[in-house]
Amino acid sequence: MQKNKNGIEKGVLLPRPSSNETQFFDEEWSDEDFKNIIRKLNLKVTPQRMIILNCLHKNRKHITAQELFEKVQKLNEDIGFATVYRFLKDLALGHAVTEVRMGGMPARYELTPKKHHDHMTCTECGRIVEFQNKSIEQHQEKVAEQFGFKLTHHVLELYGICPSCQTHE
Amino acid sequence: MQKNKNGIEKGVLLPRPSSNETQFFDEEWSDEDFKNIIRKLNLKVTPQRMIILNCLHKNRKHITAQELFEKVQKLNEDIGFATVYRFLKDLALGHAVTEVRMGGMPARYELTPKKHHDHMTCTECGRIVEFQNKSIEQHQEKVAEQFGFKLTHHVLELYGICPSCQTHE
DNA sequence: TTTGCAAATGATAATCATTCTCATTAAATT
DNA sequence: AATTTAATGAGAATGATTATCATTTGCAAA
Ligand SMILES: [Zn+2]
Ligand SMILES: [Zn+2]
Ligand SMILES: [Zn+2]
Ligand SMILES: [Zn+2]
What we know:
Two copies of one chain form a homodimer.
Chain A (H helix, E strand, L loop, with lengths): L30 H10 L6 H12 L4 E2 H11 L5 H13 L3 E4 L7 E4 L6 E5 L5 E4 L2 H14 L2 E12 L1 H5 L2
Parallel strand pairs in A: 4-6
Antiparallel strand pairs in A: 1-3, 2-3, 4-5
Helix pairs in contact in A: 1-2, 2-3, 3-4
Chain A binds a DNA duplex through α4.
């Protein structure tokens, strides 16, 4: 496993720092929202799936399947790993969750927000900043038009060194 | 494996189409360039590494480690899979190659071009368009400034339906 | 050129995220 | 309630990636 100079595994998400240079968007989600998500994917509403979606929402963003499984188990012993994994995949296929991969690490998931945002990640400490930039989105559409593509989604991940990691040399 | 409506595996790179809506940037690379790449990573220049870089350059872009290994073997029976794999990882770490992942499929690699570009991929047929957009790059820098980040690199992948796939319904 | 050492190599085994299988259970529709 | 079809859970299978280690090689000092 790659480590940075502090011995921290690169790319591992740290607990949310509360520093002002970090930004997370929070959103409200109701059980009705979740049921609609499931139905839109032509899947059946089950207690397992409701629990999985609730855990996805309530817990830290950018969670791995394994981590999510552990959270889910605390609410219901009997939910299997395969169910969590399978459902995450179904959700990702329908863009109801966003799958983020970094290096060869396990995929991380977050509920696709109602209001789109992109990510900027510090490669030293793993800190993540969420941002919205209308101009970038507009220029993406222009590129698509230019080649006649109809865009369905995109991945924009910025990587760099955060202020704190620049300071600590 | 996920398939689209034509039974083609989604996300698999097809041979370069020659249609006008597709765009690839080609670049010249010399053996000296390759030696410099290796030295910049503090690695030693070996025949194996030179062959691997030459194969990366000469063959289709966005190649998997396995595919590259097969190409390399045609030039030298004795080069092992581990050598190819390891070197690709070293190159990716130093951003000398760009690693692209889609779904759970094996990573695909391309020589990081001298002139940066990003990708737009058709989710139906796998066609890839490479594009350069100065405005997007500038706005990315603005976002970074806003949060005090020093950008090192980024991933921008647009996904959509290409003109040809829109037509064929 | 010979020698010494650190790095690279190649074969193979190990790891581990992801996917599959299948017997059982549950959701939705009538 | 009965029928139909999808979902579930346990575990095995898959397959990409990584690690290990004995051997070889690059490189530079003597
Ligand atoms: Zn965006
Ligand atoms: Zn940082
Ligand atoms: Zn770019
Ligand atoms: Zn297409």
